[in-house]
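Predict the holo structure. Ligand: adenosine-5'-triphosphate.
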Amino acid sequence: MSTFIQSPFGQKIQKLSSLHFVIGCLLISTLYATVCNLAFTEGSFLHVSDYTISLFGKYLCYALLALAVDLVWGYCGILSLGHGAFFALGGYAMGMYLMRQIGDRGVYGNPDLPDFMVFLNWSEMPWYWAGSDNILWMVAMVFIGPGLLAYVFGNLAFRSRVSGVYLSIMTQAVTYALMLAFFRNEMGFGGNNGLTDFKEIFGLSLQNPSTKLVLFVATSVALCIGYIISHYIVSSKMGRVVTAIRDAESRTRFVGFKTEHYKVWIFVVSAMLAGVAGALYVPQVGIINPGEFSPLNSIEMVIWVAIGGRGTLYGAIIGAVLVSYAKTRFTAIMPEAWLFALGGLFVLSTLLLPKGIAGMLPASWAKGSEKENDGIEPSDNYENKRSESNNISNPAEAK
Amino acid sequence: MVVDKKGSPLLAEQNIKPDTRHGVILYVEDVSVSFDGFKALNDLNLYINDGELRCLIGANGAGKTTLMDVITGKTRPDFGKVSFGQQVDLLQLSESEIARAGIGRKFQQPTVFEELTVFENIELSLKGDKGIITSLFHKLSSEQKDRIADVLHTIGLAKECYYAAGRLSHGQKQWLEIGMLLAAEPRVLLVDEPVAGMTAQETERTAELLTSLAGEHSVIVVEHDMAFVRSIARKVTVLHQGSVLAEGSMSEIQSNPDVIQVYLGEDQG
Ligand SMILES: Nc1ncnc2c1ncn2[C@@H]1O[C@H](COP(=O)(O)OP(=O)(O)OP(=O)(O)O)[C@@H](O)[C@H]1O
Ligand SMILES: [Mg+2]
């Protein structure tokens, strides 16, 4: 065994990190699903149905969203209970674009105005809809909308040193306030009903199964890119600073870091990831409405991460996909009981798996194992030290 | 982007050079702090000379930690003036700016980044650009690695360098925090109760380290352990109820009637 580890191949395997593994898994399963969807017909054992594809397209959006939550909560200790707001804002940016793509195919056949504006007897589009039929505008808004909200909120909250429970409550209040605002017809985002009845995206019909497949693949690619960015951030010195802020913020200040800046920055990045997730979600489900701002949604996201295991990135993905899958299954049988089931799941996982599902995976993964600490070798048996220290950690942290 | 001591543009605060032409590096003048009417510091005056090692003693609640909070920007005084050298007004700077200007601090409760390794704790404390962009693209240079290795060696934690700091013993955490101070290469070190939880041997080594730092750095040590104070002290300041009661060499202090009455008296009685 030891000769295997010392062999070049063995060393390569050891160097493989969670990053390679996660990206590999995502790409392979996406490829598998795509091929099996296209190459095998219904009834075949290997067939992956269009329904499954669209379902997993949704789950991958949730996974990207969970990744965003883990970045701020798992690594920086900011328990945001308002990430649904960023998700929804990204979704609305996409929704506006899709709305404009309907053209005169709406119920009222008005070539200039979306149906809901005609219904409200508006004669022209509000100023903030200007440019919404432009693809670049849409992409920019997917980032700017959530990013700006996070920037303004973060600056207000972190500079005045609000943290802990107070911060979480404030984030809930923000998403709740936005929900109420978006419910109003005068806001100009379709009120209650939101934006829906989309026809096509980039010229592809949304009814078409192949479009769903493309969206699924696009979401998977977005998740990979989001994962690579997040992984890069958390394994850079930036990630260490952020972890330091989580564990001892005032110490971090006395070491010379402007902690507020770091917190705002990571919050903005996270909000943008959530916005992208929302933007990819909307064409796949065909609707965006104020319900997405509901405080309950934001809490659910945090539960995904808690169940999957916070502070690992891949834990967030596992948690989001598994819990969403459970939700799909469960709500098909007993829709009313889902919240109880979710609560129960959360309590159970906190009691039995304090580190979440990711806690059951190899410990060396948990902290970006390929970190380059090769600067000094204090003794020849550094590897032993490291694994030894990992062994010590587990029982100690379990109690 | 690599931070290079010579190459990269320095932050404005890092150019702060205290003016020490009068030989004084830290001025604390007429400082008062009150918490809900209770005066934790009361018209306190303190001058620390460049390169000196000063011991601060005083009963529990005398205001020693509060004084450090004021100097490092954690607590803003109600009145008074605190300056670094003659011209740098510390009351205008934030905690992180004060730290970058060259005033380092060790807390009374050892505070290290528990989830990070010992190595990473030192890495984050290294002197240098602390901006976001730099952190994002930072790669340790070989000088920085050497510097970290040096510090680890000095504090005797080279073997533990890949341990998570949270698993160190209390005394080791104290050492690590001192190491974090050293890595920042500050002009002034504020050290709050450094030997609490250390064995006699460790205490002795701490004494050696702190005395060796004086000269190049100015060091202010708060400590209750009188034997330790005696072993390192050149000049001692006694705080009592938020102001300076006496100042002088250890023997002067010990023979000062005021001090005997309020502080040493209780101790020995
Ligand atoms: N944030 C605060 N709010 C209210 N009172 C405070 C605060 N910080 C300090 N105090 C009070 O100020 C006084 C001085 O406290 P300080 O911590 O400076 O004492 P100290 O000399 O460091 O004592 P010790 O030797 O026990 O560490 C104490 O009576 C303390 O209760
Ligand atoms: Mg104290």
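The longest strand of chain A covers residues 195-196. The first helix of chain A runs from residue 2 to 6.
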